[in-house]
Amino acid sequence: MLREAGTEAPFVGEYTDTKTEGIYSCRACGSELFRSSGKFDSHCGWPSFFEPLAKESVVYLEDSAMGRVRTEVRCASCGGHLGHVFEGEGYDTPTDLRYCINSISLRMQPST
User: What's the domain count of the chain?
Assistant: First the structure.
């Protein structure tokens, strides 16, 4: 997933329904990407966040591979594919964004 920009199957990922407090990092390089406080239940089948930990922790690329234009999200440190970000879907979040991220691209470190 991280290197070939794949997408894991919905509703099977390790972090889809996780409620544990902590930091989500890139599974490839360990860079911190998302906080659990930015995670929300979107019921889409993948972990969803409304913002990255810091703006510079991710980069965005145009992705037209599926016959429509989407915004791909990659780890800014190693370039690993994380998922996509969608805007304007009507979720009750502070940013109106849904970072739809592959669980397999993340590793979560619980808060102590």
Answer: 1
List CB contacts of 66: < 8 A, sequence separation 6 or more: none
26 a catalytic residue: no
The CATH number given to whatever domain includes residue 94 is 2.170.150.20
**Alpha carbon of residue 105 to chain centroid:** 8
Averaged over successive runs of 10 residues, the pLDDT of the chain (112 residues) comes to 88 94 97 96 96 94 85 96 95 95 96 82
Structural domain that includes position 37: 22-110
pTM reported for the whole predicted model:
0.93
- Please identify which of the residues 26, 29, 78, 100 carries the catalytic annotation: 100
